[in-house]
Amino acid sequence: MCKIPVSLHSSRPHDNHIHGGTRMTGTLFGYRKARVNLAIQENSKCLPILVLELAITTGKLLQEMGVGLVRIALECEKKPGEKIKIQDEPIWTLFCNGKKSGYGVKREPTDEDLMVMQTLHPVSMGAGVIPAEATENPDGELAYMRAHFERVVNSRDSETYYMMNPDGNSGPELSIFFVRVG
């Protein structure tokens, strides 16, 4: 879980919870023409507890987010008798705003993922780009969006991550649903 020392004096840890869930840090990142990655952490100073590579390009996701509300649904098949945590499922069917968009694949964090998390560790929420020279990648700038998410466990076959807006006025602009069906 958390491998980097964390301050015990966090301010207002339970503010803005809309569904009584656990506050997590979520980061969407990737090169504009490459697939987007999703990293979930207990907080911005911890190693990721989940990394998914999504079959939607970063540029396409940014375009969808520019229009407004984005809902990502990740669906997998329920296997009878198997007792695996939903976060440990290896492959997902990906839907973005109701359109089938390929797959999401769980993977271990790469050295580059960890470098991105280390670069962004002081960022609690925000969006931007990491210049190409910082990532040492010829694909150009790496775009990212980081926010607090509220993790709500609906059942052992369903979890939702709701992006929490810092102003607390409007509802979530991004929701990520994990569901096992079958």
Automatic annotation (TrEMBL):
<dbReference type="InterPro" id="IPR006460">
    <property type="entry name" value="MIZ1-like_pln"/>
</dbReference>
<dbReference type="GO" id="GO:0010274">
    <property type="term" value="P:hydrotropism"/>
</dbReference>
<dbReference type="Pfam" id="PF04759">
    <property type="entry name" value="DUF617"/>
</dbReference>
<protein>
    <recommendedName>
        <fullName>Protein MIZU-KUSSEI 1</fullName>
    </recommendedName>
</protein>
